[in-house]
Design a protein that fits this description.
5 helices; 3 strands; globular; mainly alpha; 7% strand
């Protein structure tokens, strides 16, 4: 009997970002409609909603596939994902005209400028969150589904 480990790995991977995106979308909708923030948030939401759950699923498939050859625990494997996604997101935002890179920081929508000294700690905090999510949540789901 074929137990479909890659399908189970994909499904275990998409649980965390799917639930997180429900919360994020609620915050974005409240920000846009209730607080009347004039930034076109819907253009920013499309990228994470389309890519992040699939990236988690594919990254978990890659983790399961590399099981015989891997040296990294699942937490460290998950902590590498923000590097890949941030690079792809920055490239897409720059090519789409949503973000410009300057000498002292990045500017989104020609309205919000964030200096680099604020981006670095937030990115490192994101890497830490990904590490914890992958170590405890995705790792737990992998064990429950019998693919770990």
């Amino acid at each position: 009997m074929n137990t479909h480990p890659y399908l189970r790995a994909y499904m275990a991977g998409i649980v965390v970002p799917s639930l997180g995106l429900l919360v994020a979308l609620t915050v974005f909708i409240l920000t846009r409609l209730v607080f009347q923030v004039p930034i076109p948030i819907e253009r920013v939401v499309i990228f994470p909603m389309a890519l992040v759950p699939n990236a988690f699923g594919v990254w978990n498939i890659f983790y399961v596939w590399s099981r015989p050859h891997r040296q990294l625990p699942i937490g460290f494997h998950g902590a590498l994902l923000p590097v890949v996604m941030a690079t792809m997101g920055a490239l897409a935002a720059t090519c789409g005209g949503f973000m410009t890179v300057g000498v002292h920081g990045v500017t989104w929508f020609q309205a919000i400028t964030v200096p680099y000294f604020l981006i670095v700690p937030w990115f490192l905090a994101g890497v830490a969150v990904y590490y914890l999510l992958w170590k405890y949540v995705v790792g737990f789901l992998n064990q429950v589904l019998g693919i770990e």
